[in-house]
Amino acid sequence: MAFWEEATDLKISLAFSNASLCALSYYGAADDQKWGDLYFPADLVIQSGAVSTAIPDVGVRMRGNTSRQEICDSKGKIYQPCHLKISFKATFDDELYDLSQFAAFKHTWTASALSERKDRDFLGMEKIDLKYLPRNVYNGVSYTYSQEIYVYDHFRSAGILAPYAKWSTVTLADPASTYQCAYEVIEDIDKPFLKKRTSDYKGDLYKCVWGAPKGTNAYTGAGLARSGAVTSATDASGYDNGTRIANGRIGVEDNYNGYHPCYQLKTNDSGETSDFSKMAHYINVMHSCRYCQGTLAMLNGVLEVDDFLKMEALSYLFGNFDDQRNNANNYFLYFAPRTKKATYIPYDWDWCLGADCGNGVASWLPLRTSGLNGGEIPANVYWDTFLSGSSHAPAYDLAAMRSTYLGHVKSFVAAGVLDKANYASFLSKQNSSCLQNDLATVQAYMEAKKALVLNSFQ
């Protein structure tokens, strides 16, 4: 669609009241993220090429974990950007708006107006994400410019579920000030995202990140371990069949009550009464295959294996140290109702293509078995598919899956995903008004990683 085309000039403006902007800045940046689900009203205008669309009274909230920061002073003067999520269907009517500090933003609806608002979208999207650019500072240098946009483009070209993303100029304004910045606009990963890509879109979607059981600070990555997620139980064959632990690592995130599970159900969610069985079963099978002599048929019954191996080959080449493999973080899992199998969806790919925080990702080999912080790769799925050398290993032979994975690595390199000229060409098609000075860093990474891969297969 024209909105996402590289050459389409995109400009977005958000006009807040003074009270709305100050509340977004103060409450959105709270360290405990207690108010992280609250949207504050703004009037949105999207200028996509020659087409201008005004959408009044959208919901805006801050997004991110460590990136949250106040963006204006107490009088509403804006002095820095933050990452934002825009909801076209925010209703501002849940119980949190009954609190005195938010009462001014509470909406009361007629039945027809509420129904109309809940159906409101933009180009079939209910939400979009805005992440400011450049970002991700390491040793005083900002590293992230167009990398995430580039890798999502290649994930999609390979047939992997991944969001659209592109540059935009974003203007934030209230009666006290105006602030303009380059942003990355990203399609939200949600039910409309799935509906556009598959007819089998009514399944369970999980966001998989670092998290902890409710009421604890026992944070871990989403490495598919049983601990804190499912009970320790086995069936008559000795395979895991534990059930989901209430308020444990599988759940529905509740910022207000401080509950940030590792596996956050995003569709078909109704709090603690939701059906979490597919995620629990997936964890059981991943554990059984690695530790309890589970069969290859069990693995194939819960995972789209070929899609996973293809996604992981590209993930390896693009070099994100904070991804599903290296840090058990930043991915989505979708369980399709018809097949009952999981599909991996890449998410939050801004630490890649040389933006590596000094971790030396360009030197990491395709079959590297150590994780970001040392020790074995934490996610069981890698040991169940193509990695070997652990003290715990599946009973079945991994040779075929390892060969498929390495074959994808080689074919993607041959197709030019790490050719620096291709990256330069990609940048040249972007909106020329946006910053693009990540070229040298990205090209240095690409040359090093490409040479490593070619040498490793000689």
Describe this structure in words.
The protein is an alpha+beta fold and 458 residues long. It folds into 2 domains: 9-188, no CATH class; 198-405, no CATH class. The chain has 11 helices and 14 strands. The strands form 3 sheets. The protein has a 7-stranded mixed barrel. A 5-stranded mixed beta sheet has the order 11-12-10-13-14.
The run of helices and strands is EHEEEHEEEHEEHEEEHHHEEHHHH
For the report, how would you describe the main beta sheet? 7 strands, mixed, barrel
> What is the spatial order of strands in the main beta sheet?
1-2-3-4-5-9-8
Question: Could you list the spans in which at least 5 consecutive residues all have pLDDT below 50?
Answer: none
Computed CA radius of gyration, to the nearest angstrom: 22 Å
Number of strands: 14
Taking the alpha carbons of the first and last residues, their distance comes to 42 Å
- Compute the number of helices: 11
Approximate helicity band: 25-40%
Principal-axis shape equals globular
Determine the strand fraction and express it as a percent band. 15-25%
Which structural class fits the helix and strand makeup? alpha+beta
Number of domains: 2
Mean pLDDT: 93
